[in-house]
């Protein structure tokens, strides 16, 4: 038997999940140490309770998805609206080189996932889910592409599978980054560049999306202007989804929302000299992601994962080894084989398997012990906060299009 929840009750349940998640993260050190997001902590508990309800009583819960879709689109629009191309110039050649390294890693990660899935007789799309969709992409991208893969490609339980992989990656990304960088620093006797002031290291609160608890001073006018920007992105995304349906340009709606944000932000910056209020965009983006994840996790059907547990663990363990080897033999060496490169390798492990906050935590663990790395703290947040999401979305679309 199925119990259905209306829009209002779905929002109420999502709010309860977020409050419970906040309580759990505050009380459980493991969750804090590995930067587990509050929506994930509360949502996984709720999903476990819903699973127990289904197993012992036969009841299942159905939540309204209209709000989930809307908040998902707002989150991806916020990524686009934060993509100021002027920051690329600030990062210089090092940022571009790091982008190339990460882009190549996405190809490797998806190749490992798809190859192992095919070898074990699974749908190759499951390997893609256990690749950059969830590991580089994180929970937001996992849920967004999961809906697409479920509805358009028939991958049953794609959202559930994606959230599980993203959570695994989040923990593993925090476990391997620090030890790898520490090993590189010790082996090659690396030292921080002399004269780099500690103040040059960016505080997590100064970085887009890195600290959702950071106080942001926002006026009513700024909030209204920001809502107008989001509405424009979502309206454009809905129009383009319908306009391109059935054509070679057909893309998921959230990709159009992200792209609209990029174009709109930079058009306002360079053509109209209009200063977009980044603090409001960050706030709305973080709130949207939290509510979206809460609803997505409430909707998890964990019983759909029972037959995939063992093959999925094989793929994820292989991805962990691949990430570690790539960070040591590619990221570290190509970025200069110096102290900054070692810190960048730690950061790459963080968002290559988990999320940008995990990358920041990995780098801080190294810089707190061995000294600051201004280059790493300049490059990683900009790449991890939005540029990599744009590249990842394009690559995922290409993989889906050409997979049999």
UniProtKB/TrEMBL annotation:
GO terms for molecular function: glutamate:sodium symporter activity. The keyword Membrane applies. The chain crosses the membrane at residues 6-24, 36-54, 66-86, 93-119, 125-149, 161-181, 249-268, 280-300, 312-335, 341-364, 376-400. One of its GO terms (biological process) is L-glutamate transmembrane transport. GO terms for cellular component: plasma membrane. It is a multi-pass membrane protein. The keyword Transport applies. It is found in: Cell inner membrane. NCBIfam families: gltS. PANTHER family: SLR0625 PROTEIN (PTHR36178), SODIUM_GLUTAMATE SYMPORTER (PTHR36178:SF1). Belongs to the glutamate:Na(+) symporter (ESS) (TC 2.A.27) family. Catalyzes the sodium-dependent transport of glutamate. This is Sodium/glutamate symporter. It comes from Comamonas antarctica. The lineage of its organism: Bacteria, Pseudomonadati, Pseudomonadota, Betaproteobacteria, Burkholderiales.
């Amino acid at each position: 038997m199925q119990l259905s929840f209306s829009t209002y009750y779905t929002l109420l349940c999502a709010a309860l999940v977020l409050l419970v998640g906040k309580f759990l993260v505050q009380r459980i050190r493991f969750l804090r140490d590995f930067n587990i997001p509050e929506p994930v902590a509360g949502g996984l508990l709720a999903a476990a309770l819903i699973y127990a309800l289904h197993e012992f009583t036969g009841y299942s819960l159905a939540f309204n998805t209209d709000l989930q879709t809307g908040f998902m689109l707002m989150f991806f629009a916020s990524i686009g609206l934060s993509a100021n191309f002027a920051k690329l110039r600030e990062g210089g050649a090092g940022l571009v080189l790091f982008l190339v390294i990460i882009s190549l890693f996405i190809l490797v990660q998806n190749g490992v996932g798809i190859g192992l899935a095919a070898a074990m007789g699974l749908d190759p799309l499951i390997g893609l889910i256990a690749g950059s969709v969830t590991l580089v992409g994180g929970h937001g991208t996992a849920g967004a592409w999961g809906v697409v893969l479920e509805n358009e490609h028939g991958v049953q339980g794609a959202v559930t599978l994606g959230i599980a992989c993203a959570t695994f990656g989040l923990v593993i990304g925090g476990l391997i980054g620090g030890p790898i960088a520490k090993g590189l620093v010790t082996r090659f006797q690396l030292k921080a560049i002399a004269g780099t002031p500690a103040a040059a290291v960016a505080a997590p609160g100064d970085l887009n999306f890195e600290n959702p608890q950071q106080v942001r001073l926002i006026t009513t006018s700024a909030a209204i202007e920001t809502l107008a920007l989001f509405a424009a992105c979502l309206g454009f995304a809905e129009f383009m989804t319908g306009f391109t349906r059935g054509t070679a340009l057909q893309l998921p709606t959230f990709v159009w929302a992200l792209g609209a944000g990029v174009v709109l932000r930079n058009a306002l910056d360079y053509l109209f000299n209009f200063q977009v209020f980044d603090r409001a965009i960050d706030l709305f983006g973080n709130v949207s992601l939290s509510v979206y994840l809460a609803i997505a996790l409430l909707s998890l059907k964990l019983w759909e994962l029972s037959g995939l547990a063992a093959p999925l663990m094989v793929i994820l363990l292989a991805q962990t080894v691949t990430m570690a080897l790539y960070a040591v033999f590619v990221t570290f060496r190509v970025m200069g084989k110096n102290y900054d490169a070692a810190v960048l390798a730690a950061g790459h492990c963080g968002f290559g398997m988990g999320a940008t906050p995990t990358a920041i935590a990995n780098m801080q663990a190294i810089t707190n012990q061995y000294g600051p790395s201004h280059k790493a703290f300049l490059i990683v947040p900009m790449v991890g906060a939005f540029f990599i999401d744009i590249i990842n979305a394009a690559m995922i679309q290409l993989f889906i299009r050409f997979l049999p």
